[in-house]
Amino acid sequence: MAKENEITFIAALNSTTAIKIDGEGQCKVTFEVPMSEIEEVMKLVLYVGKAFRVVILDTEQEDDYLKELKEMGNYIGKKWI
């Protein structure tokens, strides 16, 4: 169970282009998140304008998530399209 101040959701990076680094050392990361995770994702609005820590953990739910992406048409086999 997540702690009160934690936001936890399943996500993936669709490709290396999801990570953008500008010339001043700033980065932007874009995650692909299934609609089943929208409730947790919407909690991110509480952190607009604030700093927070991101921790990435492998998940056993990956297969279910990849299945959902396939159904959405974003993912075929083990390759992003």
Features:
single chain; 81 residues; alpha+beta; two-stranded antiparallel sheet; two-stranded antiparallel ribbon; 2 helices; 12% strand; globular
Description:
- The chain is α+β, with helices and mostly antiparallel strands.
- It has one domain (16-80).
- It contains 2 helices and 4 strands.
- The protein has helices at 38-42, 62-72, and strands spanning 19-21, 27-29, 75-76, 79-80.
- Strands 1-2 form a two-stranded antiparallel ribbon.
- A hairpin with a 5-residue loop joins strand 1 (19-21) and strand 2 (27-29).
- The mean pLDDT is 78.
SSE layout and pairing:
Layout: E1 19-21, E2 27-29, H1 38-42, H2 62-72, E3 75-76, E4 79-80
Antiparallel strand pairs: 1-2, 3-4
Compact description:
The protein has 81 residues and is an alpha+beta fold. The protein is 20% helix and 12% strand. It has helices spanning 38-42, 62-72, and strands spanning 19-21, 27-29, 75-76, 79-80.
Task: Using the CA coordinates, give the radius of gyration.
Answer: 14 Å
- List low-pLDDT spans: none
Order of helices and strands: EEHHEE
Binned, the helix content reads 10-25%
What percentage of amino acids are in beta strands?
5-15%
From the N-terminal CA to the C-terminal CA, the straight-line distance is 34 Å
Separate helix tally = 2
Main sheet record = 2 strands, antiparallel
Number of strands: 4
Specify the structural class. alpha+beta
Number of domains: 1
> Quick one: overall form?
globular
- Give, in spatial order, the strands making up the sheet with the most strands: 1-2
